[in-house]
Protein 1
Amino acid sequence: MSAPTPGPDDRRGRAAGPGGIVIVGAGPAGYACALGLAALGVPSTLLDQNTTIAAGSRATGISRRSLELLSSCGVADAVMDVAVVQRANQAFAGDRELFLDWTPREPGRYPRIVNLQQDLFEVMLADALRERQEIDMRWGHRVDDIRASDAGVRLEVETSDGRRSMDADWVVACDGARSAIRRRLGLRLTGVAYDTRFIVVDVHAPIALEQGVRRIWFDPPSNPGGTVIMHQQTRDIWRIDFGISPDEEEAAALGPEAVQARVRAHLELLGVTDAWEIVWSGDYTATSVALERFRDGRVFFAGDAAHLVPIFGGRGLNSAIEDGFNLAWKLAAVVGGGAGPELLDTYSNERVEGARQNSAKAGIGAEVIAARSPGSLLLRRAALELMQGPRPALKTLLGHRTTDANVYARSELIVDPASEDDVSSPGRALPDFLTQAPDGSRQYLSDALDDGFAVLSVGTPPHGLDVPATFMGLPVQQLAIADAAYDDLEPAVTSPLAPGTYVLRPDRYIMARDAGGDGTKLRRLLHSPPFSSTRTQEAAR
Ligand SMILES: Cc1cc2nc3c(=O)[nH]c(=O)nc-3n(C[C@H](O)[C@H](O)[C@H](O)COP(=O)(O)OP(=O)(O)OC[C@H]3O[C@@H](n4cnc5c(N)ncnc54)[C@H](O)[C@@H]3O)c2cc1C
């Protein structure tokens, strides 16, 4: 790797620190990457073209997995203080109820999904960022051009003081769906675009409905031929998405008066008579597209810059956070010298796989929700018919499971990924649950873990397992919890982790496990880390 070269913008010396990581775009992906790096003590510079956080809710669902990743920086607690927990899913055909499904009780500190306007969420992320001296946040910095070579990356940045050049060793492009960096590098998103357009509105209204229910109407009287999705957010703000019917002319439907009329009709359907006000509106077309690779030499793509998924399963924002944390620890390992740069290819491999899983899961739901073609409309009619009767499983098309974490079954970083549907197998996201330490103290696993790697024993660790202080150059925590089932602590809930010893990654994925063996596999892994920089250098010689 090249030595950091100060660029002309460097008024405070090499602000991005050793490794020179510049993140472009302070949205969920950029914040996550910067916070993930800072948690491991690695500096970064975060640039955003705006001078402040953009107003408007956009995404509204924050997943359990995102909350777990954001727990150590305090964001998860801030979210939980104000967010609305999604407790149920309800669907209607016309104004007739199809089903009301309550989310089952599950182990872990956080609910499956909570609702909070994206702009309020970003304020919390920005607050957390300010606490970290490792992050140099620069608002009002728009990246207009990029030149990347094997030696480093040069960015051309427009600021209120004029145009500057800025050098970096690594650039993370988190600059959103219209990514200028992606376009400058000549890279293209490919995939499927759904035709249906959605009007997305935030309405301030006192609505006396059951709390925390996500509601979806197909062909309701308030939006004939289309769909309506409604989420309760915080501060009496309701998010209403109107899918425009194929027969409507889009330009007219998106006009302010048409939007107002649609909201009025829907609130009347719900029996709202008090005053209400539209506080934000936007429009959206569902797409399922991605880059082929999320790494281009020294430039990485994360969040919407890398992939777009239909929003109906809440995957846009949450996959952006997942990307940020996946990349952060790998960059930290590489700039700290604990791993060679080849490790960074696993970011692309894992997250491309994640984007494919997200598209596959969101795709069928999008066909039903954003149906427009004759084939999709036929599928929707059939699905709705079956949901009411003998095929209740089809409800999952509209359900909460869409926010399940990705599985890295093919990653070269995962030791012996199990193929069976086993939540404690390597390649799965670590499930959270209430644990009991050998001394009897009780704590959620998400609270017990530090920010680096962890070697966790559920039950007795293998004899003579000598855990090093660092692994891939990052700190390793060793912890043990008593045996597996805690029915007395969380009624009807048992520990999802089977007895054994686990190597856990900083992004809370299970990397390896020894289930009742002699520990040889873990010993070998812990003392001979993959992608080791020493091994890389030896191979190069
Ligand atoms: C109307 C609408 C509704 C949505 N609803 C949902 C939903 O219900 N659920 C869901 O999960 N997702 C939803 N999404 C998607 C969700 O908002 C995104 O997936 C999420 O914001 C992606 O985060 P990101 O960090 O990748 O990008 P963004 O949030 O777009 O952030 C990109 C950042 O980069 C900055 N930037 C851009 N270009 C430059 C440049 N050249 N130089 C410097 N800075 C730059 C921007 O100012 C911005 O701050 C919705 C999106 C829209 C538009």
Protein 2
Amino acid sequence: MSSIQDVLGEIEGAAVGPIAAAASAVDARRAFPVESIERLGELGALGLTLPESAGGLGGGLTDLARACESLGRACASTGMVFLMHSVTAATIGAGAGPAADAALSAIGDGALATLAFSERGTGAHFYSPELSAERHNGGVRVSGRKSFVTSGGYADIYMLLLQGEADGTADAYLVEKGAPGISFEGEWTGLGMTGNASVAAELEDLQIPDEARVGEPGTALELVFSTVAPLFLVGLAAVNVGIAGAAAGAAVEHARNRRYPDGSTLAEVPAIQHMIASMDTSTRAARLLVQEAARLGDAADESALVAIMESKVVATETAASVSGRALEVTGGQGYTRSLPIERHLRDARAGAVMAPTNAVLRTWIGKAVTGLPVP
Ligand SMILES: Cc1cc2nc3c(=O)[nH]c(=O)nc-3n(C[C@H](O)[C@H](O)[C@H](O)COP(=O)(O)OP(=O)(O)OC[C@H]3O[C@@H](n4cnc5c(N)ncnc54)[C@H](O)[C@@H]3O)c2cc1C
């Protein structure tokens, strides 16, 4: 079996190769990046965060950040699908139960997984699900809708977050694609990340056996805050550093090659140099913050929580500001599809509103820094 460093190197190679080459078509057609995800499967990348005991690579936050930055730079939709899969794989690994074991083994064989947490009603507060199941047939039965399920209809395994029996608790269940009672509605019409298929899951009398629960009854929120949150926040931050890097890189290339009739280049204009300096500085600062947050998280340092939350806020805001500045550098040409800037600009808008949203995170950071409980 390949080492984790080998696989990370392969991911970076595929990211600058076929995954980057497919990104523009994925975006223009709003197509799920089937080939790119298959390529990641062939490389063993879908086992990055799967525990070694389940045949995975056992990667941590630092490894996830490295993979997510290179994928986010190449194709943000692929980066999102990979991120949701990797977070789900690690969360199943951190839980336990018969369904968890079977799912880990399926993921080891190439199955794609994702999280179905969000609901229309609770929105940004996905950790307080309204959907509740009733006891039925030796298990539970649930009807309702989960919104924004990345890879909806494409993933093989869905982790559903439902209200627990005791007040203020939640349970996580694993449901397979094609199970009677789960279907996927509509098309993803989001501004950016156009290939990530974040559609709604319709649940109609979905019967779930007790064995499909991950972990003990009522313990899912511990998994959400101890495993889902750090991996998701660092991974999403890294995807956004990738988007910022891609936007800055495309703007620099354009500035070097765009020539005026007198032979001078755009790169020689001082105002453009200042904008490029600002893009480069803020992308580097965001990358260093994400790497530091990942390192603290991997070391289980007590300051990790704040650093991880801050890294998501800073990286997503950096992606938005850098891609906006890249548009100024590239002008009207950047506003068209002749350059990838407009794609990066749209992709960069998702991060701030993905839960925990930046507004909610600011509240949590303020609470954590002043010693108040989070959330
Ligand atoms: C591209 C994409 C992919 C996604 N993938 C998934 C997925 O795979 N699985 C999944 O479960 N979900 C996913 N989501 C859902 C996402 O994480 C959010 O839960 C969802 O976007 C919340 O949307 P809402 O409009 O209902 O938020 P609302 O709750 O209506 O919030 C609207 C705004 O108000 C602010 N706000 C609300 N309450 C507070 C508060 N107390 N303090 C401060 N500000 C507040 C929020 O920050 C937000 O900006 C995805 C979303 C996107 C955009």
Protein 3
Amino acid sequence: MLHADTDALKLTVLGKSPAWQDTGGASSGYLLEAKTQKLLLDCGNGVLAELQRQLPPAALDGVLISHLHADHFFDLIPLAYMLTFAPPPYGSPKQKIPLYVPPGAKTVFRTLGSLWSYPSVIEDAFEIHEYALDSAFKIGSLDLQLATVPHFVTTSAISFTHADRRLVFGADCGPNQALVNLASGADLLIAEATMPDDQVGADAGHMSARQAGEHATAADVFSLLITHYSELFDPLWITERVAENYTGSTLLATPQMALTV
Ligand SMILES: [Zn+2]
Ligand SMILES: [Zn+2]
């Protein structure tokens, strides 16, 4: 899985917590780098602080949000404030940074911004693009393919291809075939394992570690990164549950973990 070449995709975990944060942790956020391009994937609560360990936020080339749950986008508010009001290099980029969001997000952002008496706080800071569901588009040198997956709100799993490398982010989702199809043959699948198995219901919007392993095997991915799990669950227990269904390379996401695909 490890490559030291210019075609590589580099992934840095900024936050892997579920809806509540680990001690000193952040909710969903990942820095994806391809050559000189830097994309922030999800921006949950706590992510801005972790992002600044990697780069000044104004150096981002884009931000992409998988779905409109607070643990995946809430730090857009402090990030917007920083981009608008902080001096370079942290804020005040020469051009607005593109922000790719689910349909309807602009309305949600205005409602959220009104809590700060600043409804346009996010649109003032970013160039907003509401993507079409299940669409394919490019961000710089990255080719993206979206697939709608079952969750409590409209949610997209996202495939990123750069040269011959492919990484698939499952976002939040219950068990589903769309993620298997999207991830088929990928170099890396990032899959959530939010639920202890005994809490998973038939209509669940989340997966267990065992189900994440099932999806990795069904998609025949080269490696698996487990995320969106709480520190309250034993990592060894999670790893063992994944291994019941998947024998490939498996890692558990930890803050600031860096992988090269
Ligand atoms: Zn979540
Ligand atoms: Zn969610």
Protein 4
Amino acid sequence: MTKQQEQLVAWLNDAHAMEHALIEVLERHASDASDEPEIAQQIQTHLEQTKDHAKKVEMCIDRLGGDVSKSKELMSKMMGMMKGASSDMFKDQMIKNALSEYTSEHMEIASYKALIAAAEELGDTETMATCETILLEEEAMAGWLDKRLAGLVKNYLVNLE
Ligand SMILES: [Fe+2]
Ligand SMILES: [Fe+2]
């Protein structure tokens, strides 16, 4: 493996750890949203996509001849970044979850854009195509959150007792 390919594998491993951290976050958020079927369904759908992203990234690492990092440190670092300030249940938990997801999806968008550029530079068209496919789903989720955020906040305040 060239130095450049090693770097690409390291970045793919960061993305892989991020997806795994998000699987846990989205599972929790889906159950927090159990009273809001439309939101719970959207989170559930993206949870399935997130599991698929982790698998797709793993295949890219394998194809490059790299090892999928099982580093606990990397996982917990990503987990800390993704889950937000606290896992305690707040009255405004749905808002906190939405903010955390909004941030996570944009973090993913930035990561996959960076990976696409790196794969392009290395002439790795398969990794590029995979990351482009994943990017579309991250952008769709970010777009959905963007549309829902203001309404969610206003609705929360109207119903606040
Ligand atoms: Fe993802
Ligand atoms: Fe995502």
